[in-house]
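All the exercises in this workshop are built on plain-text protein records. A record pairs a protein's sequence with a compact description of its fold. Read left to right, the backbone structure tokens trace the chain's path through space. Once this layout is familiar, the rest of the handout is easier to follow. Here is such a record, shown just as it appears in the course material:
>
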Amino acid sequence: MISPARRGWSVGLAVAGLLLAQDTRPVFRSSVTAVAVNVSVRDGNVPVTTLGPDDFTVRDNGVAQTVLEVQREAVPFDVTLIVDVSGSTHRAHDVQWRDTQGMAALLRPTDTIRILTIGTLVDEVLPPHAAPATVAPPTVGRENSAVYDALAAALLRHPDPGRRRLVVAMTDGGDNVSVVSAETVAMIAKQTDAVLQLILIPIPAGPPPPAGFQGAPTFMHRPADLGLLSAAALATGGGSRAFAGDPVPEFQAVFDQFRQGYVVRYSPSGVAPTGWHVLQVDVHGPRPYTVQARSGYFGG
């Protein structure tokens, strides 16, 4: 039986998805006076952490902008962890939940953590909470997989200009019940202020699902969907990574990259205030640096 709270979440998300498909008002909001962009800068594999406003070049729809401010360590983070506890990942549930606790322990007291789980519906098992936080493991292993709904639920939050938002999703990517499509997730990613990182978990070989398993035997995502999700993560300034080991070091690497990045702010000049804006962020240096930032934003 589905609880009223879970049913409300599902219906609300469905309505949000339908409205978003018809409405291009942005979730990633910029005013006429300010745009904030999350930027990661690396020299090889080493983060570059000593940059200031004069070191950055920002082009908004091809027009050079004046960087007003660059922030680093002082900015608190809002981290959303998405854990896939659906039937397709039943062999990895115990390990995933142990690792979730390990990831939560890496956050600072100034940060907040929120945990969502992926099943037939999306459950918020831990609302936004000051770090560190613990939560009891959920009941898992007998459900379908609403990966796209979970990603949409994590990304569709009102932005807070005083905090940076990171969404980390641990999933195999298989989806068979979502209301929201992979294409819609990709559209939301262009409009959110969050950075999305996907940790694609390979499921180890083992026995078949437990007795009473209710998940559909075939996941109905197309091969192109994982590519869409990876492209969505890149559009936010994040990315996707696959691994076959302990995800806690993977999260540590993601979080360190996020923590050692910058928030670059500028006031748009010489460009229309509305519509899609293509962003290009570069850094002056003694040799080429690897610069990772969101690909653009919707103004309005």
Confidence is low (pLDDT under 50) at residues 1-31, 212-219.
